[in-house]
Structures are given as structure tokens and as C-alpha cells.
Amino acid sequence: MANSPMVTIVEDFLTDLTRAGRSANTVRAYRSDLADFDRFFPGPIDQITAGVLRAYLGSLADKAPATRARREAALASVLAWAYRAEMIEADPMTRLDRTRLAASSPRPVPTEQVEAVLRAIPKTRDRDRLLSGCSTPPACGWVKPCPSRSRIST
Questions:
Q1: Based on the domain organization, do 11 and 84 belong to the same domain?
Q2: pLDDT for 47-98, tens place per residue?
Q3: Domain that residue 31 falls in
Q4: SS3 for 18?
Q5: 8 A C-beta contact, residue 1 and residue 7
Q6: Quick one: 115 and 90 in the same domain?
Q7: Helix-helix angle 24-40:65-84, to 10 degrees
Q8: DSSP per-residue string spanning 37-101
């Protein structure tokens, strides 16, 4: 990307991301993804069209969905930034459908960690109330759902 017309634009964009508090990993991934796009299309940013983007994204068909989505996100971000900065007249990324990732299931907490947390809680009635989510001790001493959780406050 050293001789590309996009190099200054991308560096300014990445500087803005850093100033906005984006993580170093995000900035590094965007730099890599935008360099990949620049190898595909080394032209100026104002010549990027929906057709150019479709061709590039089509060349990523063999990549994992998460990789395609991340590269789309990098392009969408830099193009939206360039549009807001009036470097381009329109954002061509808005004309494309984006890769949709299936929602991932939550990862369970390993049994060892759950057991370690339970061992750290003192074995008293307070522990039972903490585990049941009840702020008041049950009258019978048996751990049961807290009545205050089932009431609807008005």
C-alpha cells in the first residue's frame, strides 16, 4: 500500500480510530484488511464503486464468514469515514448486503470455575440468599425463589 493513493487516507482513518479509543487489535485488523483491499483495487478512494466492492467481496468466497464480515466492516468503516469527511460523494458500501453471522451460543463457565466460586462463598444463610437471588431470608429457612422478584412494582 506504500505507493497507493489510499495510503494517506487509510493512515488518517486509523489515526482517528486510535484517537476514538478503538482497541489496538481492531486497528491492526483494519490495517491488514484495508491493505488486502488495496492490493485488489489500488485506485483512489473516489473510484471505489459498488461493483468494485462486489468483485472484491466475491474474491473472498473461500474465506470463513467471520473473515468476510470483518473485511466488510473495515471497508464499511473507512468508506463511511471518508463520506463524512466529504472525500467521496456517496458511500458505495451502503448499496451492498453485508455478511450475516449466526448468533453464537454463550460459552458455559467451566465446572472448575463454578466450584471455585461456590467454595469462596461462606456457607451461611447469606450464601443461600446470594445463590437464590433473594435479598430477604426465607421464613422457613428453605432456599426458594425470592418473592420480591416475582412482584411487579408500579
A1: yes
A2: 999 999 999 999 999 999 999 999 999 999 999 999 999 999 999 999 998 7
A3: 6-95
A4: helix
A5: yes
A6: no
A7: 90
A8: HHHH--S-GGG--HHHHHHHHHTTTTS-HHHHHHHHHHHHHHHHHHHHTTSSSS-GGGGSPPPPP
